[in-house]
Amino acid sequence: QMNRKFFFHCGPTNSGKTWNALNRFMQSKSGIYCGPLKMLAQEVYHKANSAGVPCDLITGEERKFADESGNPSPHVACTVEMSSVNQPYEVAVIDEIQMMRDPERGWAWTRALLGIAAEEVHLCGEKAAANLIIELLSTMGENVEIKEYNRLTKLNIEDKGLESLENVQPGDCIVCFSKKDIYNVSLSL
Q1: CB within 8 A of 37, min separation 6: which ones?
Q2: How many CB atoms lie within 10 A of CB 160?
Q3: DSSP symbol at 123
Q4: What pTM, to 2 d.p., does this model score?
Q5: Mean pLDDT estimate for the chain
């Protein structure tokens, strides 16, 4: 029943798409950040509170209030599965929207996209998801403004694969999309 305004911030990793969306989140009277990982939700929670924007944290494992008395804040950072479609917000940020295609967790991104109650919805992800998003939103009479970004730093491609976790160097980043993978990789390292 809301007349929502959609923005799709698309581009490669390290292009500033999520940073731009989060700036709007921080400027808003109320907002929700929906991310794929607990670690990303925690990062937004800490960043917002450090910037003086009271923000709660909600994941499947924990709930932290910015207000020590336990009163809900107008901003919340959560894993996408924990996002509310009932609470109204001025701004919503749905990160890694291309995960809608994931056979195990895609339902959570689809639910957030179709049901999040925000005046502005900022989607962040790969450009390859644009057609799917446009098509889904058009069935509800909603439009999306596409904002394309380019990589801000040079991407260096190695001549060969990592081959083994023994070859991980300081500064390397390993991305895992399940708790089981995180524990397995951590144990191996």
Answers
A1: 79, 177
A2: 6
A3: E
A4: 0.84
A5: 92
